[in-house]
Amino acid sequence: MHVHLLGVCGTFMGGLALLARELGFEVSGSDAHVYPPMSTLLKQEGIAVQSGYLPSHLSPEPDLVVIGNALSRGNAAVEHVLDRDLPYTSGPAFLADHVLQGRWVLAVAGTHGKTTTSSLLAWILDYAGLKPGFLIGGLPQNFGVSARLGEAPFFVVEADEYDSAFFDKRSKFVHYRPRTAVLNNLEFDHADIFPDLAAIERQFHHLVRTVPGTGLLLAPTGDEALGRVLQQGCWTPVERFAVDATPRDGTWTARLLEPDGSRFELFWGRESQGDVSWTQWGAHNVHNALAAVAAARHAGVPPRQALAALPAFTGVRRRLERRGEARGVTVYDDFAHHPTAVSASVAALRRRVGQAGRIVAILEPRSNTMRMGVHQNSLAAAFAGADEVLIFQPPDLTWDIHGVARSSPAPAQVFDNVSAIVAAVLASARSGDHVLVMSNGAFGGIHERLLEALGGP
């Protein structure tokens, strides 16, 4: 069977292409933005990728077209599919129909931490010899790929609440029918498709409805939005988890042994399962690890064995990733694009470097929600802990980002081009500084440009 994916260079769709290839399908794809690393990975796997959405890319006609959720009516390729009556489906539906049938699905949902928690969970299961399949919206460095079929029965999937396709406005995760579901947290996001938090809570409850009574839900204590979700009805056992909480029966807890989260002790109920030192840092990553260990236990991995896997976990690309150092200045790349994530990343770095290290926080407000100005009133406070803040202003931003700079707890400036940001860092940087770049896009190659400028004569 020949499968063609529209929007193939997105992380989810690219991973789907890799799975389709493993299934033995002939796979091709097209995308408006064909660029590394996904384009390189697909080429290495023998998957032909074409640039743009020309109807000619669908000749000879494939047996099935998988349409990514970034495409809508009016797109030339979409119109060709409809006019020619070609068989088509969404990415999540393809995954459910061709990969997840008969598998024990472990789904990780939530506003924050899905990619890291999914990667941790897949690594723990792999470390235990279970050889899970997975589809993750990022690049787990332990595996070097975002997706693989693995061996039955276990399959880990990053369960996104974003819509499935232009013809299916349900959240992706309603297709997955997990037996183990992690609800990592819940806040308002994706303002381009959800009018308010209640609408997202409704989609999360659709996910809860699909988990069998013999399955397991994992949710943090004290998350009010998830509390409302579960109050709408729950037919599955729920286990709770929390960081720096008092151990108690039926709850997973972690106690930080180092302020930066690089060492912690884990409890199941009142019994300690051991402590672990690992290369990751930040209380938010301890939270993610706690969820992953609890989910792995449901799949049969004892907590002590799961903890033994954590020191070998090498992280996820673009999650507080150290990109390099020049003249004593360290540059980090982080995917944060929501005030809560920005705050967590800045706080994690502050605890890591202590009070002596100077932190320069750089933000590109690129996500649809950020560009709509939904978080403009809470963004400034997220920079607490930074010593200097540099904010990029996209040319089509419709709200006053200078107001964020004025309200920032650290001195802040706004720039309308990447070159000016690089020049500002170069002018003030000194040995021992830490430059934290936060964006969910390529940000004009700013990381390489910073390192090149800092390392120049």
What is this structure, in a nutshell?
With 457 residues, the chain is α/β, with parallel strands linked by helices.
Low-confidence stretches: none
Main beta sheet: strand number and arrangement?
A: 10 strands, mixed
Structural class: alpha/beta
Query: Tally of extended strands?
Result: 23
Would you mind describing this structure in some detail?
With 457 residues, this protein is an alpha/beta fold. The chain has helices spanning 11-22, 38-44, 76-83, 91-100, 114-127, 197-210, 224-231, 283-298, 303-309, 339-353, 368-371, 376-379, 402-407, 418-428, 446-455; strands at 2-6, 26-31, 48-51, 64-67, 88-90, 104-109, 133-135, 147-148, 154-158, 163-165, 168-171, 180-183, 216-220, 238-243, 251-256, 263-268, 271-277, 321-326, 329-334, 359-363, 388-392, 412-415, 434-438. It has a ten-stranded mixed beta sheet with strand order 8-7-9-6-12-13-14-15-16-17, sandwiched between helices. The chain has a six-stranded mixed beta sheet with strand order 18-19-23-20-21-22, sandwiched between helices. A five-stranded parallel beta sheet has the order 3-2-1-4-5, with helices on both faces. Helix 1 runs parallel beside helix 4. The longest helix is centred in the middle third of the chain and has 16 residues, at 283-298. It starts with a strand and ends with a helix. The relative contact order is 0.09.
